[in-house]
Amino acid sequence: MLTLKIKDLYKNFGSTEVLKKINLDIEEGSFLVLLGPSGCGKSTLLNIIAGLETIDKGSVFIDDYDVSKVEPKDRNIAMVFQSYALYPSMTVRENMIFGLKQAKTPKDKIEQQLEKVSNFLKVDELLNRKPSQLSGGQRQRTAMGRALVREPRIFLFDEPLSNLDAKLRVEMRHEIKKLYTTLKATMVYVTHDQVEAMSLASKIAVMNQGIIQQLDEPQTIYDKPNSLFVADFIGSPSMNFIQGIIRKDSQSVIFTPNNENNINIDLTHYKFKNNFQDGQQIVLGLRPEYVSNTENTNKYAKKLSLKPTIIETTGFDKNVTFDFAGSEIIGRFTPNSGVKLNKSHDVYFDLSQISIFNTKTELRL
């Protein structure tokens, strides 16, 4: 069953087209993350779902009912804001039950919901405190509790963790995932952090310049990005890109990197999504984890001798940068690899998980 449907939606701010023909079908119980850089339209889309922004063209349906012109309070949604949006003069208890009181919910129902949610979020000992007496994580739990007590049809999250420090952000991300796993509710979550998106979502909509570039499960988007933009935006470090020429005959497909005419890479195993021409310029994409010092004996491995130019230690691995074919290539080496700057090392390219893109259209081949 579809909980949320967005059909042919457009939104302009003056002469600027912010959203362009957005179409989304969200199944009940889905966790959809709207992911993209600043200014891509993701928060505008969330505000339209909430009823906080008008639509120039198109429709928004909740449970098959067109809510495009329905007031926010009548859409049966709850929103958790980036700024928490707590009333400073109210206690945690008063903030959490404010929406229920406005809806004239019976007192016994209010107390029942408050007890259930405050226990679940572990804020029951904070109910008599004011927001100024809370930490960032406690304020975020209070904001989430205010949404949870209403038992809405859809939860909307607008970059709720961006104001937290790195450690607390990880903890709260875990809490939100646990919340979703427990409730099985429909959630729409906006972020520019691709780690948040990958770890939380059941589906990700990658947005750029008002367009949904790709809508799919997180692992599919990571393994098979359908454009150069998606491939570059997802992953940290992002995907390596090698430009070159592709040639084919009756039996094989060979890639030769630009500026490396003596290196040929066999791509015969790759399953092409679209046709290409012999001698066409393409971009070969390879994730850093498939460029390593671990000897690879599978038939899709390519061994090269390369010199590192930058070594970045993370603790659990080392991100090693090489100059190759006129561009930088980043690999992930083991912590005890003994890799040294400007010394040649054996580097193994695992070509079993490559992506190939059309240089002109920037779309996946």
CATH class of the largest domain: Alpha Beta
Task: Please tell me what the overall shape is.
Answer: elongated
Count of all domains? 2
CATH architecture group name of the largest domain: 3-Layer(aba) Sandwich
Q: Please give the share of residues in helix.
A: 10-25%
- Termini gap: 33 Å
Individual helix count: 8
- Percent of sequence in beta strands: 25-35%
Rounded radius of gyration (Å)? 25 Å
CATH superfamily of the largest domain, by name, is P-loop containing nucleotide triphosphate hydrolases
Explain how this protein is built.
- The protein has helices spanning 42-50, 92-102, 107-121, 136-148, 166-183, 194-200, 218-223, 228-233; strands at 2-13, 16-27, 31-35, 57-62, 65-66, 77-80, 154-158, 186-191, 203-208, 211-216, 240-248, 253-257, 265-266, 280-286, 291-292, 301-306, 308-313, 318-324, 327-333, 345-350, 355-358.
- The protein is built from eight helices and 21 strands.
- The chain folds into two domains: 2-233, 3-Layer(aba) Sandwich (Rossmann fold); 240-358, OB fold (Dihydrolipoamide Acetyltransferase, E2P) (Beta Barrel).
- The protein is elongated and about 75 Å long.
- With 365 residues, the protein is α+β, with helices and mostly antiparallel strands.
- Helices cover 23% and strands 34% of the residues.
- The longest helix is centred in the middle third of the chain and has 18 residues, at 166-183.
